[in-house]
């Protein structure tokens, strides 16, 4: 898809409150990533395909062994 199409899908106006827009799966993903403090990234090559990814900061949990 073109840059302008990609911007419409993942831009601020891409998801409407009534659920209309890029699709339910992407809408849910975008909201979850935002709620967890992450960022969603998208890239696309016209005629080649698109890739969407996200980055989250998560603490490392260390399991303590039983004494």
Question: If you had to describe this structure to a student in words, what would you say it looks like?
Answer:
This protein has helices at about 5-10, 25-35, and strands at about 40-45, 50-55. With about 70 residues, it is α+β, with helices and mostly antiparallel strands. It has a two-stranded antiparallel ribbon. Strand 1 (about 40-45) and strand 2 (about 50-55) form a beta hairpin. The radius of gyration is 16 Å and the shape is elongated. The protein starts with a helix and ends in a 12-residue tail after the last strand.
Number of strands: 2
Helix and strand sequence:
HHEE
Strand content range: 15-25%
| Rough outline | elongated
The unreliable regions are none
Mean pLDDT, all residues: 78
**Rg value:** 16 Å
Largest sheet, spatial ordering of strands: 1-2
- Number of discrete helical segments: 2
Distance between the termini: 57 Å
Structural class: alpha+beta
Task: Outline the fold blueprint.
Layout: H1 3-10, H2 24-35, E1 39-45, E2 49-55
Antiparallel strand pairs: 1-2
Keywords:
67 residues; alpha+beta
Task: Please summarize what this structure is.
The chain is of the alpha+beta class and 67 residues long. It contains 2 helices and 2 strands.
């Amino acid at each position: 898809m073109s840059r302008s199409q990609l911007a419409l899908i993942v831009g601020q106006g891409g998801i409407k409150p009534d659920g209309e827009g890029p699709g339910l799966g992407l809408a849910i993903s975008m909201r979850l990533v935002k709620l967890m403090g992450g960022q969603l990234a998208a890239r696309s090559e016209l005629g080649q395909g698109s890739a969407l990814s996200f980055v989250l900061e998560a603490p490392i949990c260390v399991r303590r062994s039983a004494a």
